[in-house]
Structures are given as C-alpha cells and as structure tokens.
Amino acid sequence: MKKNVLLIFATILLISCGSTKTFQSFFNDHKNDVGVTAFQVPNFMKSLLSSISPEMGGLFNNVKDFKFLTFNEISATKKAQLIQQMNLVTNTRYTDVLRKNTSEKTKIVSVIEDGDIVKEAIIFNSTLAKSSVFYLKGNFDPNTLKNISETNQFENLSSKLLQNNFTPTNTGFNPNTGFNPNN
Predict the structure, then answer these.
(1) Between helices 153-163 and 142-150, what is the axis angle to 10°?
(2) Is residue 72 part of a domain?
(3) Measured distance CA(120)–CA(118) in Å, rounded
(4) Tens-place pLDDT, residues 146-164
(5) Nearest CA to 152 among 113, 123, 129?
(6) What is the pLDDT of residues 31-46, one digit of tens each?
(7) 61: part of which helix (H) or strand (E)?
(8) pTM to 2 decimals?
(9) Cβ–Cβ under 8 Å, residues 117 and 139
(10) Domain annotation covers residue 5
(11) Would 182 be classed as within a structural domain?
C-alpha cells in the first residue's frame, strides 16, 4: 500500500514538473527558428538601450536581463503553439496583469512581484503577421510597465533595435578586444 501511494505521488510530481517551462527554455527553443529575430542583451550593452529608446525613460537602468523574440508571418498553428507554450511559462509563478484574447490577436502581460515591485515581466503579443515576446528582469514600477505595454512602446523599441542594427560591432564593441579601436 505504501509503495502504491509513493508511486502515485512520484508520478504526479513528475507530471506536474514536466508541464512547466521557463522563459529561458522558451527563448532557447525558438531563437533558431526560421523567420525569428532574437535579442539577448548582455550587461555591457544595457546602457545603450536607453539611448536608442529615450521614451522608455529610466526603465533600462533597472534591467538585469532583457530578451526578445519576434516571429514574422506565422501560421495559425504556429500562433496557437506559441500561445500554448507562453501559457506554460506564465501559469506557474507569474501573475497575469493583462490577458486579452481575440481571434486576431492575443496579448499577455505577466509579472512576478515582490511586494510593490515587479521583478520579472513578460509581454507577449501575437497575430498572424507578427508575434513578439519581451522578457525583463530587474526592479520595475508596475504602473510604468503597464503604461509602456499599453502604448506599444516595446514594439516600437524592437523596431528601433532592428532599424539600428543593434549588434555588438555597431555599438562600439569589438569582440576581440572589448573596445572599439576607433573610439
């Protein structure tokens, strides 16, 4: 009897652990997909984000980790798959601030809070034309994140990053020496 209870408990534990997903695993699963643009900003480049998007204010002063993925022209099946995977990421530790589902668009803003401070945020927007997901880790004012998300400033930031070709070589960073010899 004890063995059966232990076996059932172990099975439930394995099933429940297998149904969760971290944002990092989501990022790693999709960063090499065809048609995906992926950014993972290292520490030395975070200060440059503020100069590319001044309207984001001091948000990036508090960023410890920033990643985003954009998926262009995806199928309805791929869109549904991305939404399901995002649900696996946000269902366990995250609190939904906003979740809006229509046949044309899905928008999810989920956060991990510590008191009145947001520690992690995921902003996910999905249509067939374009889907994007942003991940921020740091210390943020929840109202600032909500305002930025509602006014699509994250989408504007991703466009600016892509337009400016935000890469280590274009930001004055030389991967061999760590500095741009021309500066």
Answers:
(1) 70
(2) yes
(3) 6
(4) 777 777 777 766 666 666 5
(5) 123
(6) 999 989 898 877 666 6
(7) none
(8) 0.73
(9) yes
(10) no
(11) no
Considering the domain boundaries, does residue 183 fall inside one? no
Burial class of residue 181 in the structure, from the number of CB atoms within 10 Å of its CB (0-12 exposed, 13-18 middle, 19+ buried): exposed
Q: Which domain holds residue 67?
A: 19-171
Q: What's the rounded Cα separation, in Å, for the pair 164 and 117?
A: 31
Residue 114 CA to residue 69 CA, distance in Å, equals 26
Token look-up 């044309």 returns 104
Q: In what order do the strands lie in the sheet with 36-41?
A: 36-41, 63-72, 130-140, 117-126, 106-114, 95-101
> 144 CB contacts (<8 Å, ≥6 apart)?
57, 59
The pLDDT tens digits of the residues spanning 47-98 come to 666 666 655 656 667 778 889 899 988 899 999 999 999 999 999 899 998 8
Contact 95, 107 (CB under 8 A): no
Q: Give the separation between CA 151 and CA 134, rounded to whole angstroms.
A: 15
Which tokens sit at 153?
């400033």
Per the structure, the count of domains in the chain is: 1
